[in-house]
Specification:
Length: 412
């Protein structure tokens, strides 16, 4: 006699396969390992291995609300996609005032990174933490938005598989060759010198938010996963850097002008020194001629007193006196021209000093700007525009002041 199947067991069996069918039809994102074991009919999978993936994927099923209105505004302003917004919100982003920002970041990244200015992130594939510095200075409008996008991309990079990172690496490095922003290049170089993995992580964030032309459709498509309009993010980055960029451009222009002026001043200075030496030599010759003329005059007068009234001596003296006076006139004209040139040189030195002062003032402004954002040393704490060597400037001034004053000789 056949035993009837239990209705209870039949019901459970039907419901189990119904659940499996629903999962298959509607594509619920079960972990890859779970699907693989289901396909084999083997449910004795490694629980530890699956649990990490299960936590990550199940977290993605649930929508996370923005922690604050301001955080939501940053996500919207940077055109984050829904996926990117959720990823951003899951990192519990907070906006920190200047007084607490660096302390918070030290706790987050477990170190005092001198490259941190506006934001920081630390996390793993399951969770993370983002801190964004509050910036109210209108000169840096947009910096908070770009920072939010930048840190979100760090979280995105953390979640990429090894294969995805290996695929992106050559594309990111190729795109990096298109970077023309000197400041960004310096920052990336410092990261590269620290650690290759850190460099690639930063490159992923910087290129996604600050490089307008990737010249790589595949890479551009990749970033569309996180931004509906990446160009808008880049525009915000450019806007936030406009103040410093203008200072840099002015400093670069001034530096070129100063270098040209310095080369011209050095050349003029050497010409003045050479002319000074020539005039000094001429003056010595004139002094000798004058002494000879006086001696000849005394000899002629002595001869006249002795009764030797020679017309030849008188004519010879007058000719020597005429030649001497002509040479004196020529010498004095050269001295006046030399003095005019020296005066013009001093004016050029004053103009040069003003250019150097303007140049150094830009350096002071940049130091003040970055001192406001950085409590310790930063890649910009040194004079970003490169202060002019004051010793070089002072040497030119001193040399110009030491130009001998050549007095006009009197005519006889």
């Amino acid at each position: 006699m056949k035993k009837k199947p239990s209705k209870k067991h039949s019901f459970l069996s039907v419901n189990f396969w119904l659940i499996v069918l629903i999962v298959a039809v509607f594509g619920i994102g079960l972990p890859h390992e779970f699907n693989r074991y289901l396909a084999k009919g083997d449910l004795s999978l490694d629980r530890t291995k699956v649990s990490d993936s299960w936590v990550e994927r199940t977290n993605d099923w649930f929508s996370v609300s923005p922690p604050s209105v301001e955080i939501e505004r940053l996500a919207i302003a940077t055109t984050m996609t829904p996926e990117a917004q959720q990823l951003f919100y899951r990192q519990t982003p907070t906006i920190e005032p200047k007084e607490t920002f660096f302390k918070v970041c030290e706790k987050i990244v477990k170190t005092s990174d001198t490259l941190i200015l506006f934001g920081c992130y630390s996390g793993n594939r399951q969770s993370g933490k983002i801190a964004i510095r509050s910036v109210t200075d209108p000169r840096f409008k947009g910096v908070m938005e770009v920072t939010a996008a930048h840190e979100m991309l760090h979280a995105a990079y953390t979640r990429l598989s090894l294969a995805e990172r290996e695929m992106l690496t050559p594309q990111l490095k190729e795109a990096a060759l298109r970077i023309t922003n000197e400041r960004l290049s310096k920052v990336l170089k410092q990261y590269e010198e620290k650690d290759t993995a850190l460099f690639l992580n930063e490159l992923h964030s910087y290129i996604g938010t600050e490089l307008d032309d990737l010249s790589n459709p595949q890479l551009e498509q990749y970033y569309q996963r996180y931004f509906r309009d990446r160009n808008q993010v880049v525009a915000l980055a450019e806007k936030s850097q406009e103040t410093v960029r203008k200072l840099d451009e002015r400093a670069k222009q001034l530096k070129s002008e100063i270098n040209d002026l310095e080369a011209s001043l050095n050349q003029t200075q050497e010409q003045l020194k050479q002319r000074d030496r020539n005039l000094e030599s001429q003056k010595q010759n004139l002094d000798k001629l004058r002494a000879d003329l006086i001696d000849f005059k005394e000899q002629a007068q002595q001869s006249y007193r002795e009764g030797n009234n020679s017309a030849d001596l008188e004519y010879q003296f007058e000719q020597m006196q005429f030649d001497y006076n002509e040479k004196v006139q020529e010498f004095n004209d050269q001295v006046r021209q030399h003095q005019d040139n020296a005066a013009l040189f001093k004016k050029q030195v004053e103009y040069y000093k003003q250019k150097v002062q303007d140049f150094n003032e830009i350096g002071n402004q940049e130091r003040e700007i970055f001192a406001e954002f950085k409590p310790t040393s930063s890649p910009f704490s040194k004079d970003a525009s490169g202060n002019k060597n004051q010793d070089e400037l002072q040497q030119i001034i001193e040399d110009s002041d030491k130009l001998p004053q050549i007095m006009e000789d009197r005519k006889e």
